[in-house]
Design a protein that fits this description.
Low-confidence stretches: none
Radius of gyration: 14 Å
CATH topology: Nuclear Transport Factor 2, Chain: A
Number of domains: 1
Order of helices and strands: HHEEHEEEEHE
Structural class: alpha+beta
CATH class: Alpha Beta
Number of strands: 7
Oligomer: single chain
Distance between the termini: 16 Å
Amino acid sequence: MSSGWSVARMIELGHRHAQLEAEKKLELVMETMIEEPVYEFYPLGKMMRGGERVRRYYRQFMDVFMETIVGYELLDEWASERSVVQEYDITVDVGEGPETHRVVGILFTEGDRLGGERVYGGERICRMMLGELFDELEPLQSR
């Protein structure tokens, strides 16, 4: 367990991270995370690591993907001293009419910040979120 973390602090950090994403405040989003975060995508079995890649991901996410969002709903949230889980329905319109995707994100701690995220979603929504970075994902590695 990360020292100094509580369920309430995890929920606050998860909400702050999500709010900064929604406000497209890239630098502040990056400040919530360690220098070399890890993002894992399930059930795809893929991952990316490193501050530079995660920064590129968020630039794509904020500048391109968020422009396709026509609605979203936080369905539920769970937290422990090490992570916060947020389950969303995200409705996007990419020119073929609206489509809704279920996405679960698990933000986890490493030290005093977020170590990254585990994203559970279908390939289509992951491709939309990642853009060209999708082709740079690597196979998952054991911890």
